Amino acid sequence: MSTLARHKRRKLKSEINVVPYIDVMLVLLIIFMVTAPLLSLSVDVDLPQSRARAVDSKKDPVIVTVDADGRYFLTLQGGKPEGIDATELSARLGAFVAQNKDVPVFVAAPGVTEYQKVMDTMVLVQAAGVPRVSLMSQPGGAPK
Predict the structure, then answer these.
(1) Which residues form a coiled coil (predicted)?
(2) Which of 2, 24, 65, 133 is the most buried (most CB within 10 A)?
(3) What is the number of structural domains in the chain?
(4) Which parts of the chain have pLDDT scores under 50?
(5) How far is CA 4 from CA 12, 13, 14, 34, 116, in A?
(6) What does the CA dihedral 128, 130, 132, 135 come to, rounded to 10 degrees?
(7) Residues facing residue 74 across a β-bridge
């Protein structure tokens, strides 16, 4: 019987101790929780500069310009830019595009204008019934 008792004591356990793995996972969780907010910082972008060739169009384009302060200017086919508010811009642009379906419409903004203002302007122009909106950039100039 002494040999049977000896075999029972020497029997190996087939269990895994998961406590060290849980510790490692908690440390990784804390590291990711601390570093995740640091990864979403904004990046300064100086726009726009392009070497794109000019657009060949048979009709003069309609240009909607937004400045750094969020003011809108509308230039209708070769006219002078005139200051305009958002509701009047939407109404006039919608009426003009309804009469001239294939007129190109461009959104222009200086490089210092916030990107959100440019995007809001594009949404406003599309809401006025313009099917295709293009962005305008300054030709020439090498990137900085």
Answers:
(1) none
(2) 65
(3) 2
(4) 142-144
(5) 15, 17, 20, 55, 80
(6) -50
(7) 64, 82
